[in-house]
Recover the amino acids of this structure.
């Protein structure tokens, strides 16, 4: 059932306005080296740092930016810190999906009143560049949402961070903004988390995919996409469905040891350039068979990009009634088969590439087979 809601600019239902994704924070084993990877491979620029040199004794954080996308990579300096515990349990993974709001205290109070579990009370910090207020609530697994109110903060990132520049020349690769962030939740939990986003944040259910949409011979999953009123925040939530073999969602849950963020989709205006660069810089992608391209024109019709280029880079295409989209998925970016990236270029389409699900899941199954986890 593919029930894409046409109008996604109705903000009446929102519990509070959200301007977009403020940042995504990863807890990792070695933030210094992860920062190097995101600079050299993904073309992010280092903009700020917090650690012992700035008075933070237990953690080190690197803030990276490319256009509107901001990643924070945090590692623990002690075995006792919660960041170390998070990494021990989950491996490198996403801890914070931070949302940019006008009033973080109001967002937090409203969310908690509507049933969110508080993680951190509103807190305002200040330096010579201005004030930032943050407050956090729990979501699935050990993931949290932090509401960030920046008023007119002029510093590099937030009070407590010092500006820092990449120690090498960085060439961005055209990544623009976070298109959507996908969560994997345990069997039977999808509807509960969809309800959470509807009740707490006032999000709308945008699309439903059941196991008839997303299944191969062996594995299946179900997915529902929730979105805020302006459509800047889109959270697909996946849960495993019964198949003959272990689904990719179950494999994720086994390795991540709880619900958590599965993939982050980042948008580009020129996917051919972006993916060409990523491949040159050593980023690994899932591969669909060349036969995929034999039927692609029948399925999606005319597109502006060269089919040969798409085939060379193994980029996928799909169409809905508003336009088309181009997409590709990396392999997991850490040793555990957990978090990965989607690179997406939207040419009118607001959907998620349903026409590619089968080819993609078969590609994932080939990877699972190599890992012995299918
Ligand atoms: Fe996606």
């Amino acid at each position: 059932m593919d029930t894409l809601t046409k109008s996604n600019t109705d903000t009446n239902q929102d519990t509070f306005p959200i301007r977009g994704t403020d940042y995504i924070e990863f807890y990792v084993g070695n933030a210094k080296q992860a920062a190097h990877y995101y600079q050299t491979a993904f073309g992010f620029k280092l903009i700020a740092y917090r650690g012992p040199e700035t008075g933070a004794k237990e953690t080190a954080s690197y803030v990276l930016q490319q256009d509107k996308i901001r990643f924070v990579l945090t590692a623990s300096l002690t075995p006792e810190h919660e960041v170390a515990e998070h990494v021990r349990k989950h491996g490198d993974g996403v801890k914070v999906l931070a949302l940019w709001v006008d009033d973080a205290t109001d967002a937090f109070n409203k969310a908690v009143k509507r049933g969110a579990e508080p993680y951190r009370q509103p807190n305002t910090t200040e330096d010579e560049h201005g004030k930032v207020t943050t407050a956090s609530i729990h979501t699935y697994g050990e993931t949290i949402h932090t509401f960030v109110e920046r008023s007119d903060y002029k510093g590099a990132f937030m009070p407590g961070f010092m500006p820092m520049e990449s120690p090498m020349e960085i060439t961005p690769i055209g990544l623009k903004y976070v298109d959507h962030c996908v969560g994997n939740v345990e069997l039977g939990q999808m509807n509960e988390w969809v309800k959470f986003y509807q009740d707490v944040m006032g999000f709308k259910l945008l699309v439903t995919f059941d196991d008839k949409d997303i299944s191969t011979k062996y594995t299946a999953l179900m997915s529902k996409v929730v979105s805020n009123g302006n459509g800047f925040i889109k959270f697909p939530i996946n849960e495993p469905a019964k198949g003959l073999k272990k689904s990719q969602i179950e494999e994720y849950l086994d390795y991540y040891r709880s619900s958590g963020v599965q993939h982050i989709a980042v948008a580009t205006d020129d996917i051919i350039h972006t993916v060409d660069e990523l491949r040159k810089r050593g980023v690994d992608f899932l591969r669909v068979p060349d036969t995929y391209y034999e039927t692609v024109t029948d399925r999606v019709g005319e597109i502006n990009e060269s089919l040969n280029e798409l085939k060379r880079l193994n980029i996928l295409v799909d169409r809905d009634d508003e336009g088309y989209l181009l997409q590709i998925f990396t392999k997991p970016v850490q040793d555990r088969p957990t978090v990965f990236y989607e690179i997406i270029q939207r040419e009118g389409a607001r959907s998620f590439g349903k026409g590619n699900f089968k080819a993609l899941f078969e590609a994932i199954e080939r990877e699972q087979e190599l890992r012995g986890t299918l």
Observations:
- The chain has a mean pLDDT of 94.
- The radius of gyration is 20 Å.
- The chain is about 25% helix and 35% strand.
